[in-house]
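Hey, resending since the last one bounced:
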Amino acid sequence: MKAVHVFVTGSVQGVGYRQGCRSTARSLQLVGWVRNLADGRVEMFAQGSDEGIHRLLDWVWAGPSGARVLGVESDVVATDPTLTDFFIQPDERI
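The structure tokens again:
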């Protein structure tokens, strides 16, 4: 099992990015979360099979049709055994 912590920059808020991310992650049988950040980025934590993580990261670069991804930063991190689903967290507040 592998886990990644990801930050996505570009035009990624207000375009269905989080919903698309959740749908894609669930279809790949991954667990984790995604949320909008106050600075305009999207933050994500995902864990599951190496292949599933690889395929999700491919999707992250493309995003939904209305998104314009300019950059993706991802780090391999420790897994979270408490997660059982992939969900959208509330937006970060300033």
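The longest strand covers residues 2-11.

Sorry for the duplicate.
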